[in-house]
Amino acid sequence: MKFSAVILALAFGAATAFAPFRAPNAAGKSLKVEIAAGTPDSLNGWVPDESAFAWGLPGALEPMGNFDPAGFADGCSLQEMKRYREAEVTHGRVAMLSVIGFLVAESFHPLFGGEIIGPAIDHLTEVRKVQPEFFELLAIAIGIVETSRAQNGWVPPAQVQGKQFLNEDYYPGDIGFDPAGLKPTDAAEFAEMQTKELQHGRLAMLASMGFIAQELTNHVGIFENLGY
Q: For the whole model, what pTM was predicted?
């Protein structure tokens, strides 16, 4: 079996870390997450609960439950848990874009005169041959995006106290970017959408690592490895 396919298969069983578990309902398929009633101090309907796993953050699906084999959530402070979730959701979003980039770039490549072909893992090197300044422009664009994210949710460096790096009123990952207006206003619906995003992000992180490992191993594109 192709290595990338194995990674994708494993992802379905392992993509449920850092989120609270609730007992299955009668149907056993709902993505709904129990959320405390919204209060003036809540964040998108989430009310931090020190007694709950991961401070009550949404993100789990049956049957994995409170999956945390490395014990990151044990004795974790609220600020630390928010940083863990911020890192997880951010990496998940990058990984989802990465997976799409792998699959699209290897099958459809009209940019740069159509000269960028072959395994996606080599595309940046090939682009630099055609457009030497591309990497620098990419780094600047990433810097602008990251600076905007930091200004939205992070405490200014000079004001950081201890490990309080995130603003108290900032929900991890909620950077205010929602051009399609998909963000629910209802707390339970938001928790459900957050769970879906996290699950897709976790799967994408495993899938992208599989893609990279596969192409480093044989320098063959993903679709070609799958026989397409």
A: 0.78
